[in-house]
């Protein structure tokens, strides 16, 4: 009877663990999808973007910001924000390459620091297209911009910066991992006569130690399930 009870409890626990830990990364690369949170009445599911973070040579950060909005829910993206850990003191933009327009460095530099993002708090770093919301230099639907930045800080000196440990998992006052500004969208749900715009963000990323605990927990639960089946 006890084993049956354990089995009944273990199955939902396995499901919950998988839901809470379904996240993978390598030491040098990390991919984050937005569309989980919205700053206003705009449905979060329409605010689609992917930010791919890659550490290059241990002391440079590459961000590929892709606009994946489509159909009747197309938006432009003209700002992206993220945070860093104690080992990252500063970032300097080196290049910005648009997938269609080409070099857009002038439009997107310099890096912004300690920026307040409406509804989501303060982010350590940000990039903004300072030219305008409808210029070719913004990230239009189906396009992307590849940003390359120099990292200043302890991890860069040692050339061992990590995309997860030194950036998105670190605590900031907002508890969100990344955010972006979506503009020039369809009719605003709060004001149908105006074009919609909203901030979109992704949920917090677990710390590396939490990820390891998730893996250990899943392994233990799987082993317990196998023993119960015997």
Could you give a quick summary of the protein structure above?
With 230 residues, the chain is an alpha+beta fold. It is built from 5 helices and 14 strands.
Please give a structural write-up:
The protein is an alpha+beta fold and 230 residues long. The protein has a single domain (25-205), classed as Immunoglobulin-like (Sandwich), CATH 2.60.40. Helices cover 24% and strands 36% of the residues. It has helices at 2-21, 105-108, 154-157, 164-168, 208-229, and strands spanning 29-34, 37-38, 49-56, 60-67, 76-82, 90-98, 102-103, 112-117, 121-128, 144-152, 178-183, 187-188, 191-195, 198-201. A six-stranded antiparallel β-sheet has the order 1-3-4-10-6-7. It has a six-stranded antiparallel β-sheet with strand order 2-14-11-5-9-8, with no helix packed on it. Strand 6 and strand 7 (102-103) form a beta hairpin. Helix 1 (2-21) packs antiparallel against helix 5. The two termini are 15 Å apart.
How would you describe this structure in keywords?
230 residues; Immunoglobulin-like; alpha+beta
Mean pLDDT, nearest integer?
77
Order of helices and strands: HEEEEEEEHEEEHHEEEEH
**What is the tally of helical segments?**
5
Estimated helix fraction: 10-25%
Which second-level CATH architecture applies? Answer: Sandwich
Overall geometric form: globular
The largest beta-sheet arranges its strands as 1-3-4-10-6-7
The major pleated sheet works out as: 6 strands, antiparallel
What number of structural domains do the residues give? 1
Tally of DSSP β-strands: 14
Under CATH at level 1, the class stands as Mainly Beta
The low-confidence parts are 1-24, 208-218
**Using only CA atoms, what is the Rg?**
20 Å
How far apart are the first and last residues' alpha carbons, in Å?
15 Å
CATH topology: Immunoglobulin-like
Strand proportion, as a percent range, falls in 35-45%
Structural class: alpha+beta
